[in-house]
């Protein structure tokens, strides 16, 4: 690859691709967004990095903006983290320090990072297989994957058994000392599973009853990806903390943050502080990104173009038996592919990605290539015409299949 512009990426042969993975979901504003690039160029003339012992205006500006756009109770911001994994790990440390408890509850199919702690937290065995030592005290529970319900229930009558049974896991599978629950409102790597109606509210009640900290991992769902600044807004639930990264950098700058309520504040910075966290240059880019996404009509357009693509995919689902489900929020959409017996069809999923490449679409699949869900997540600057173009190319792909 040689260069990019907007939603497009170009290779050394001059071929153009629509990046439906937004550079692994980091490019919320696409390649080379002019305002983000201008903010970066201007900041390079002033200050690129300074020790966090000192304050700088770009960092302070980013903190103010994050508090403004986050749920009302989240008033604390920790920026001295350099990526999503270290943000998630830091939020867990804050919960442990605040509660005096140890264990962490996460969901099947979840992905929270690739440090040793977050590798253990992630709900996939293949992530832990090569490593002899795992962070202790993680309890994995079934995710709210209604399309393939662990408890073989139907949402209309299940009574949210996937939340109710967490009580049993706490009583019988944990150490009895649970600090926090970490959950993605829409699973990122795990198959684009959207939390069903009532799930997160029920999880909030369970955590309140048990005195457990509720953390939303919004590394992928945050910063407008679902058509709201944070996915928490879709569900009307306020967690005790939100982690964010990836799209916060706008056009690829490395930045991450932990947002928390007052109760989790106060952990000394020496316990969780990374070399490139709170970088001045990245903070300038992130503050500009938030300014752009906060403008009137921006998130409305994300919801509109996401609905356009979803509608086209639902049309494809009606025409192709291999598509068993289309699900998502905003521009975070998944296509689940199956064989004739309704089982996950991995070869077909990989074929869709290959044909996508041949037709000028960059696609990714779930579970790091081990899953049967194709993910559609173009930059948030997508226009209605470009949404139609993605739909046209996907129709071509499935026609070829």
What's the helix and strand layout?
Elements: E1 3-5, E2 8-10, E3 16-19, H1 22-25, H2 34-44, H3 57-69, E4 76-78, H4 84-99, E5 103-107, H5 116-121, H6 125-128, E6 138-141, H7 161-164, H8 166-172, E7 178-183, H9 199-210, E8 213-217, H10 232-235, E9 241-244, E10 257-260, H11 280-293, H12 298-319, E11 323-329, E12 332-337, H13 346-358, E13 361-362, E14 364-365, E15 373-376, H14 384-400
Parallel strand pairs: 3-13, 5-6, 5-7, 7-8, 8-9
Antiparallel strand pairs: 1-2, 2-3, 4-10, 9-10, 11-12, 12-15, 14-15
Helix pairs in contact: 2-11, 3-11, 12-14
Descriptors:
single chain, 401 residues, alpha/beta, 7-stranded mixed β-sheet, globular
Number of separate strands: 15
Distance between the termini: 27 Å
If strands are numbered along the chain, what order do they take across the biggest sheet? 4-10-9-8-7-5-6
pLDDT < 50 stretches: none
Total helices: the number is 14
- Secondary-structure class: alpha/beta
What does the main sheet amount to?
7 strands, mixed
Supply Rg.
Answer: 21 Å
Average pLDDT, rounded to a whole number, is: 96
Strand content: 15-25%
